[in-house]
């Protein structure tokens, strides 16, 4: 992988996600290399437990979804029907990573494919799913090759197939390539896409846990979320909770990252609750020479901008939410003082407008309208009333007005830019 990963003092006790990569000093691609580093021992432990006890351990660990929303994983799992009459169930890994500035799942899948495969078999055992799909971003070719090879090796070793490790549990696992559209990562659009339909989001409820793929109970979990499962089972929920930083209510570590004009961009697995300042200045080496930090997005494009004074906040789900944004994927994008903020926001909104599935009117029509106004403000041709219209659009496209989180997410950088940089917007209005 060409992703820069900065890690020191890494071991299984402190870095559940990445320790094997660092210990091996290279990608861990073969089953032999993976098994030499505790590989598949969590699965062996799990199949000797009751599935509901595996679920209980994950629930007790306080693991929250790492795709961006932070929904508690154990709670999600507990909503799936169990018991002999539950029928066909599916486990889907959301590997359609397409959030701008986010490349953590790509790294994890390319370097540690067996860890995801083991996590999926273990999770499928816990929820009683006999079929699993890794819904992979279409452009992640290397990850796809490596995951398919890992699945073949795991099948040959008896970890996938019938009567796994003598437990009576059967499981098959497939990699499904996505269509290269951002909306395919929305879990219900993803399910439609998996079924061969157009990737429109479905209404929720029902949540996939009740009616997901082909109408059957389905758990959709992100790559990073799942890849924590083997370590939670091996070392326990209390150990996992103890990994987080300081007063953070969240548990475990997090893949944090930086893009933009920092000295060092890349990925770091750090205790959840690490501050933005530690991330940017200790790990990222600060801003590149000649640039100052103007503002930053905490986790991808669909979050609100934060300012330099927010760098001392713990980067956990609740703290960043209280500050008026969302942690999202926790790969920060830094905006420097030489960057025109209107151009930056216009660029993000162009992305969101292009990626709208077009199903609901506020999103389909509101996003291109937003882009048009931003383009004229950027060119210094803004009309009187344009800023008020943008403010209105942030409400009309906001939460509760659309089928999915696409348009509300798109409004987050805009609404926060309007709040923090009113003078920049005013400058673009023609006198
Ligand atoms: P969401 O909060 O609606 O749902 C998150 C998860 O929790 C879903 O799996 C959902 O089924 C479950 N859930 C939520 N409420 C529930 C309930 N009442 N009962 C049962 N289950 C419930 O968010 P979302 O629309 O799935 O995702 C939005 C997030 O996606 C944003 O935070 C954004 O940061 C992130 N995102 C990530 C990427 C990426 O590439 N990683 C791309 C785009 C967006």
Overall description:
With 431 residues, the chain is α/β, with parallel strands linked by helices. It folds into three domains: 19-241, Rossmann fold, CATH 3.40.50; 253-336, Roll (Ubiquitin-like (UB roll)); 341-427, de novo design (two linked rop proteins) (Up-down Bundle), CATH 1.20.1440. Helices cover 41% and strands 11% of the residues. The protein contains 19 helices and eight strands. Strands 3-2-1-4 form a four-stranded parallel beta sheet, sandwiched between helices. α3 (41-47) packs parallel to α7 (113-127) and α6 (104-111) packs across α7. The radius of gyration is 22 Å and the shape is globular. The mean pLDDT is 96. The structure holds nicotinamide-adenine-dinucleotide. The site of nicotinamide-adenine-dinucleotide (NAD) has 26 residues, from loops.
Key phrases:
431 residues; 41% helix; 4-stranded mixed beta sheet; binds nicotinamide-adenine-dinucleotide; 8 strands; Rossmann fold; single chain; globular; 19 helices; 4-stranded parallel beta sheet; de novo design (two linked rop proteins); alpha/beta; Ubiquitin-like (UB roll); 3 domains
Summarize the structure.
This protein is of the alpha/beta class. It has 19 helices and eight strands.
């Amino acid at each position: 992988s060409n992703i820069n990963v900065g890690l020191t003092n890494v071991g299984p006790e402190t870095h559940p996600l990445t320790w094997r990569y660092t210990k091996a000093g290279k990608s861990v691609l073969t089953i032999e290399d993976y098994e030499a580093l505790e590989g598949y021992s969590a699965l062996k432990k799990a199949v000797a437990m009751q599935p509901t006890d595996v679920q209980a351990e994950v629930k007790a660990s306080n693991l929250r979804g790492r795709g961006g929303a932070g929904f508690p994983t154990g709670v999600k799992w507990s909503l799936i029907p169990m018991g002999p009459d539950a029928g066909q169930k599916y486990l889907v890994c959301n590997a359609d990573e397409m959030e701008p500035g986010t490349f953590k799942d790509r790294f994890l899948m390319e370097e540690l494919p067996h860890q995801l495969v083991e996590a999926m078999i273990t999770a499928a055992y816990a929820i009683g799913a006999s079929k699993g799909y890794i819904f992979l971003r279409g452009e992640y070719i290397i990850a796809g090759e490596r995951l398919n090879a890992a699945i073949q090796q795991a099948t040959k070793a008896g970890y996938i197939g019938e009567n796994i490790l003598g437990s009576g549990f059967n499981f098959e696992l497939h990699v499904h390539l996505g269509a290269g559209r951002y909306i395919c990562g929305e879990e219900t659009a993803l399910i439609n896409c998996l079924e061969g339909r157009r990737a429109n989001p479905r209404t929720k409820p029902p949540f996939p846990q009740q009616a997901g793929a082909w109408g059957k109970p389905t758990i959709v979990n992100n790559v990073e979320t799942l890849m924590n499962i083997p370590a939670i089972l091996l070392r326990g929920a209390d150990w996992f909770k103890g990994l987080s930083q300081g007063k953070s209510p969240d548990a475990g570590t997090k893949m944090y990252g930086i893009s933009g004009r920092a000295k060092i961009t890349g990925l770091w697995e750090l205790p959840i609750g690490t501050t933005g300042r530690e991330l940017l200045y200790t790990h990222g080496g600060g801003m590149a020479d000649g640039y100052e930090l103007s503002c930053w997005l905490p986790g991808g494009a669909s979050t609100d901008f934060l300012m330099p004074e927010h760098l001392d906040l713990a980067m956990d789900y609740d703290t960043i939410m209280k500050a008026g944004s969302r942690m999202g994927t926790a790969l920060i994008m830094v905006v420097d003082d030489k960057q025109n903020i209107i151009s930056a926001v216009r660029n993000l909104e162009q992305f969101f407008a292009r990626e709208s599935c077009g199903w609901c009117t506020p999103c389909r029509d509101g996003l291109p309208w937003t882009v048009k106004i931003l383009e004229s403000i950027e060119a210094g041709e803004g009309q009187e009333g344009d800023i008020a219209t943008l403010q209105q659009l942030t409400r009309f496209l906001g939460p509760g007005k659309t089928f999915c989180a696409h348009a509300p997410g798109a409004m987050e950088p805009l609404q926060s830019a309007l709040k923090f940089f009113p003078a920049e917007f005013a400058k673009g209005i023609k006198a």
